[in-house]
């Protein structure tokens, strides 16, 4: 695939993430923070997000799997995940967390389990999409092209 | 007004347990040309802050952190260091934001945070500095100017570079003039000039007192004449004299009793009505200017003899040093509070004032002080007076160092030390007062004060806010002054004045006839 096409693909792909609400405008802030001093700032941040979220989801699952669910523990995890997802603009994850928290407040174990599934689903979705996005970018760079914030299509 | 002001190089400490946010914020802040330090744990942040007390200009912290509640961190920082703190959260619930404000946050940002929000955080730093500077102004600035500017430089920029944040001398003089202009005695609001007892001024005072030689002959008029400071009034001197005597008498009780100044001061300003201390009130002499009659703010005792007798005769003041009753607020309260605060910190036990107490450590102990107990309502009532009282403290300390003039000791002072609580002075004092002197009037006044705080972060909840607001100010002093010994009176000037916006007439106890303290002028303005 030639460079121009790749870049177009990248643009379309990126756009779709926003259209589908998987990402919000916060994600657009990240490339603006990238410069020569840290040329892979965005991917670093996203990686951090993945690492942290994996950890939180793990803890969250564990705490919900307890015989007696301690919502005092569960809620903070959800809050953390909410905060974390807001950092890169993972909108659907964040929204799922909001719903999750409301069920935590109600101490509805059943609903919380469902929420956890929902959150995980959204998380894996955004993770997957972003990984694909980065791959596309890498291909472009490898082919001699350049990626800029404008390439995100906005 | 600050010609040299520039947000560049603002030293920001960011605290967030979310590594993603921490990284993003770091980058964003760097883009704002700030000097950024990041921290993933609240305790770590506190450690950093305490290690380099002058090392940061502002703290930005997330509300939810695993090792410590962000609000707690906020309290610590406010109390110990008096730095502006901005809270952040992904949660924007009103009650959370309210909590932030109550705990003293100067701002509350919602995540995701935008660059534009971070670009203007320097205003909080500047605002705080300006407030402090306003307190410093006053005639006695000459000596203080350089000091302040010097400290400003280092404080703001962390190094001896050009002053970006600091004020220049001209500006101080300007403010001073403004203040003096305000002090037209004929004005209907009867505003009075705020006397800032700079080191130089105090030196003059002490020299004059020494010249006169004997306590009982050293009346304010004589001292005033000897001092030859045209703008100073007899009342100014009188109230200062009271404090000085108080200080000296405390000294007599032992070095470690200095710690008490807070407690003593507390005693000084028991929320009593005039009726209370019949002994030490004579018409027109001690007006406790608080609406409602609580004597949160004492008027300067103009007659030294009266002082002595009054203190003795007042049973409720049993734990007060003799002259402590008339603490004066002419001195910028926050400053003295800070000083007092510091010296009062290492309290170990309350009951016997004459026991050997830990030495007063000006800074380190003070700054390591644990967080104040947030909600102690009885304290609240005392915070105002305490505040006033505290100012005296540092100056006296100074006096001790600078001048060996000794006043007759008043053996009656049974200073009650609240050290056992290891609370910062104000709290200790409050505790002290709580048990004996809190009156409903006082509380309501304090409440009103609390609510009146225009800018104070602490508005709303007396328990916590009141305490914090002025503690914060006190801390500021500690924060800025590398070495207390040097500052002494100047200390008043540098700390943000809680009472800075209190109309001068409110707390200038110089006018014996002035009985009302209009509390609702935002006593505690951070």
From TrEMBL, chain A:
Entry keyword annotation includes Cytoplasm: yes
Sites of Phosphohistidine modification: 79
Residue ranges of every copy of the HPt domain listed in the record: 38-143
Gene3D superfamilies: HPT domain
Gene Ontology annotations for the cellular component aspect, listed alphabetically: cytosol; nucleus
InterPro entries registered for this protein in UniProt: AHP1-5/YPD1, HPT_dom_sf, Sig_transdc_His_kin_Hpt_dom
Domain notes: Histidine-containing phosphotransfer domain (HPt) contains an active histidine that mediates the phosphotransfer.
One Pfam family named in its UniProt record: Hpt
Function statement: Functions as a two-component phosphorelay mediators between cytokinin sensor histidine kinases and response regulators (B-type ARRs). Plays an important role in propagating cytokinin signal transduction.
GO molecular function terms attached to this record: histidine phosphotransfer kinase activity; protein histidine kinase binding
Any single biological process term in GO: phosphorelay signal transduction system
Record's keyword terms, sorted: Acetylation, Cytokinin signaling pathway, Cytoplasm, Nucleus, Phosphoprotein, Two-component regulatory system
SUPFAM superfamilies associated with the record: Histidine-containing phosphotransfer domain, HPT domain
Compartment(s) of residence: Cytoplasm, Cytosol; Nucleus
PROSITE patterns, A to Z: HPT
Protein name as catalogued: Histidine-containing phosphotransfer protein
TrEMBL record, chain B:
InterPro entries tied to this protein: ARR-like, CheY-like_superfamily, Homeodomain-like_sf, Myb_dom_plants, Response_reg_B-typ_pln, SANT/Myb, Sig_transdc_resp-reg_receiver
Ranges annotated as biased composition (Polar residues): 276-289
Function: Transcriptional activator that binds specific DNA sequence.
Protein name: Two-component response regulator
Entry keyword Nucleus: yes
MF term (GO), any: DNA-binding transcription factor activity
Cellular component terms (Gene Ontology): nucleus
Matching Gene3D superfamilies: 3.40.50.2300, Homeodomain-like
Transmembrane segments: none
GO term, biological process aspect, one: shoot system development
Keywords: Activator, Cytokinin signaling pathway, DNA-binding, Nucleus, Phosphoprotein, Transcription, Transcription regulation, Two-component regulatory system
Assembly behavior: Binds the target DNA as a monomer.
Region annotated Disordered, chain positions: 269-331
Organism: Brassica carinata
């Amino acid at each position: 695939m030639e460079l121009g096409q790749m870049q177009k693909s990248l643009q379309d792909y990126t756009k779709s993430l926003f259209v589908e609400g998987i990402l919000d405008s916060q994600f657009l802030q990240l490339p603006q923070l990238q410069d020569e001093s840290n040329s892979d700032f965005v991917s670093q941040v996203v990686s951090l997000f993945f690492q942290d979220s994996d950890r939180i989801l793990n803890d969250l699952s564990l705490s919900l799997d307890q015989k007696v669910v301690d919502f005092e523990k569960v809620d903070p995890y959800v809050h953390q995940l909410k905060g974390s997802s807001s950092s890169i603009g993972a909108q659907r994850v964040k929204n799922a967390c909001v719903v999750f928290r409301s069920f935590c407040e109600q101490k509805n174990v059943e609903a919380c389990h469902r929420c956890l599934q929902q959150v995980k689903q959204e998380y894996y979705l955004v993770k997957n999409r972003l990984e694909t996005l980065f791959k596309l970018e890498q291909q472009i760079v490898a082919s001699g092209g350049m990626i800029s914030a404008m390439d995100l299509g906005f | 007004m600050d010609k040299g002001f520039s947000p560049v190089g603002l030293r920001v400490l960011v605290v967030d347990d979310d590594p993603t946010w921490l990284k993003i914020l770091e980058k964003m802040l760097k883009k704002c040309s700030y000097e950024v330090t990041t921290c993933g744990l609240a305790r770590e942040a506190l450690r950093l802050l305490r290690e380099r007390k002058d090392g940061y200009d502002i703290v930005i912290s997330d509300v939810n952190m695993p090792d410590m509640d962000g609000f707690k961190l906020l309290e610590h920082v406010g109390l110990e260091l008096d730095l502006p703190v901005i809270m952040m959260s992904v949660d924007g619930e009103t009650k959370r934001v309210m909590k932030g404000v109550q705990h003293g946050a100067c701002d509350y940002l919602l995540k995701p945070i935008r660059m534009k929000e971070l670009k203007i955080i320097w205003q909080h730093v500047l605002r705080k500095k300006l407030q402090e500077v306003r307190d410093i102004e006053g005639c006695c600035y000459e000596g203080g100017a350089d000091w302040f500017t010097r400290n400003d430089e280092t404080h703001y920029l962390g190094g001896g570079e050009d002053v970006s944040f600091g004020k220049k001398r001209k500006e101080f003089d300007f403010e001073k003039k403004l203040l003096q202009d305000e002090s037209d005695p004929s004005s209907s609001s009867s505003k009075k000039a705020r006397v800032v007892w700079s080191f130089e001024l105090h030196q003059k005072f002490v020299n004059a007192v020494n010249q006169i030689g004997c306590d009982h002959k050293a009346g304010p008029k004589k001292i005033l004449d000897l001092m030859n400071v045209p703008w100073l009034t007899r009342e100014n001197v009188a109230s200062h004299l009271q404090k000085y005597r108080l200080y000296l008498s405390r000294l007599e009780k032992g070095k470690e009793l200095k710690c008490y100044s807070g407690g003593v001061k507390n005693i000084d300003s028991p929320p009593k009505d005039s009726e209370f201390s019949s002994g030490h009130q004579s018409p027109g002499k001690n007006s406790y200017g608080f609406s409602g009659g609580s004597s949160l703010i004492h008027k300067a005792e103009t007659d030294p003899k009266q002082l002595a007798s009054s203190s003795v005769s007042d049973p409720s003041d049993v734990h007060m040093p003799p002259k402590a009753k008339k603490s004066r607020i002419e001195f910028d309260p926050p400053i003295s509070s800070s000083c007092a605060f510091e010296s009062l910190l290492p309290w170990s036990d309350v009951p016997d004032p004459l026991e050997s107490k830990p030495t007063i450590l000006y800074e380190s102990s003070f700054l390591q002080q644990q967080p104040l107990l947030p909600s102690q309502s009885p304290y609240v009532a005392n915070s105002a007076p305490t505040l006033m009282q505290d100012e005296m403290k540092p100056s006296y300390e100074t006096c001790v160092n600078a001048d060996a003039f000794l006043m007759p000791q008043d053996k009656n002072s049974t200073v009650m030390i609240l050290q056992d609580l290891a609370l910062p002075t104000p709290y200790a004092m409050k505790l002290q007062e709580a048990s004996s002197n809190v009156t409903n009037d006082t509380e309501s006044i304090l409440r009103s004060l609390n609510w009146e705080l225009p800018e104070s972060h602490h508005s709303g909840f007396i328990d916590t806010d009141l305490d914090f607001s002025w503690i914060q100010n006190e801390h500021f002093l500690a924060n800025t002054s590398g070495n207390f010994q040097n500052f002494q009176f100047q200390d008043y000037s540098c700390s943000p004045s809680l009472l800075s916006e209190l109309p001068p007439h409110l707390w200038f106890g110089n006018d014996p006839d002035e009985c009302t303290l209009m509390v609702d002028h935002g006593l505690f303005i951070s």
